């Protein structure tokens, strides 16, 4: 588990890059509405939703 007490400045945007990969912040609801995300990660999203929401 990783814990961030303070978000690095480069991550404090809607989208950010690490190396050659682009990442973006999404809410659980936004992830649930995305077919591609749900087809690959529905079990992870269900786990996070159960434990954190």
Summarize the structure.
By secondary structure, the chain is of the alpha+beta class. The chain contains two helices and two strands.
Number of strands: 2
Radius of gyration: 13 Å
Question: What is the beta-strand fraction?
Answer: 15-25%
Q: Helix tally?
A: 2
Mean pLDDT, all residues: 93
Helix and strand succession? EEHH
Kindly report the spatial arrangement of strands forming the biggest sheet.
1-2
Task: Give the structural class.
Answer: alpha+beta
Share of residues in helices: 40-55%
Protein architecture, described:
This protein is an alpha+beta fold and 53 residues long. The chain has a domain at 26-53. It is 45% helix and 15% strand. The protein has a two-stranded antiparallel ribbon with strand order 1-2. A hairpin with a 2-residue loop joins strand 1 (15-18) and strand 2 (21-24). The radius of gyration is 13 Å and the shape is globular. The mean pLDDT is 93.
